[in-house]
Amino acid sequence: MKWLNTFKIRILDRYIIRKFLATFFFALLMIIVITVVFDISERVDDFIEKKAPLQAIVFDYYFNFIPYFVSLFSSLFIFISVIFFTSKMAAQTEIIAILSSGISFRRFLYPYFIGACILAGFSFVINDVIMPSANRNRLDFEDKYLKNPVIYLERNVHKQVEPGLFVYFESFSNSTETAYQFSMERYKGDRMISKLMSTNALWDKEKEKWTIKDYYIRDIDSLGYETLQSGAIIDTTINLHPSEFKRRVNFIETMSIAELNEFIETLKMQGADNVNSFLIELHKRIAFPFSTFILTLIGVSLSTRKVRGGIGIHVAIGIAIIFLYILFMQFSAEFATKGNLYPVVAAWVPNMIFGFVSVFLYRLAPK
Question: Are the beta carbons of 249 and 238 closer than 8 angstroms?
Answer without folding.
Answer: no
